[in-house]
Amino acid sequence: xxxxxxxxxxxxVSEGASLELRCNYSYGATxxxxxxxxxxxxxxxxxxxxxxxxxLVQGIKGFEAEFKRSQSSFNLRKPxxxxxxxxxxxxxxxxxxxxxxxxxxxxxLNVKP
Amino acid sequence: GAVxxxxxxxxxxxxxxxxxxxxxxxxxxATTMFWYRQFPKKSLMLMATSNEGSKATxxxxxxxxxxxxxxASLTLSTLTVTSAHPEDSSFYICSARQTGNTxxxxxxxxxxxxx
Lengths: 113, 115
Hints:
The complex is a heterodimer of chains A (113) and B (115). In chain A, the strands form 3 sheets. In chain A, strands 2, 5, 6, 10, 11 and 12 form a 6-stranded mixed β-sheet that branches. Chain A has a 4-stranded antiparallel β-sheet with strand order 3-9-8-7, with no helix packed on it. Chain A is 0% helix and 51% strand. In chain A, 35% of the residues are buried. In chain A, strand 7 and strand 8 form a beta hairpin. With 113 residues, chain A is mainly β. Chain B has 115 residues and is an all-beta fold. In chain B, 0% of the residues lie in helices and 52% in strands. Chain B contains no helices and 11 strands. Chain B starts with a strand and ends with a strand. At the A-B interface, strand 6 of A face strand 4, strand 5, strand 9 and strand 10 of B.
């Protein structure tokens, strides 16, 4: 069965601290992997995506993610969090023909001043 | 990136009435559009996939007669919630994809409240 697990529902970090959001997936074929961010009342904005090649991918706003096939993980990282990063983050996986996304349940990030 | 516009962003309707939500691709032709529903504190759940000019494919458990999806043109898909009930209150998000493009672009979502 296809699924995406984000084990952390809420995370609070101090501004300037590093961040890692976890994502594990179960997928029967080679996946495309994505991280999206959703600010309150807003739609989803794509942070980054992994299709193939280098397993460390860079995204917008200073985010990066590392694909680890052996662990079925695609964790999102940022070296120094800004207050504006407070939002909800969704990991998603899809097939190569991108006909259907499977989303994780999301991780809500709070940033302490 | 490409722009997908969803309208309205918020709507309140009375129980028993119908409400239509529009999803438009502004600068590309969306051969495929997806409709998602987001429950409070839960993830986005795919409701249906629609290809332009074809009937939508609904996910298991989604009532076709209640959630009517029309994708009559390459730039517009609509979701109509018929005979809305308070339990239909949710955040609905569409996404749109071009043929051959591996990325789908999301609208800003519609907050539906049924009173």
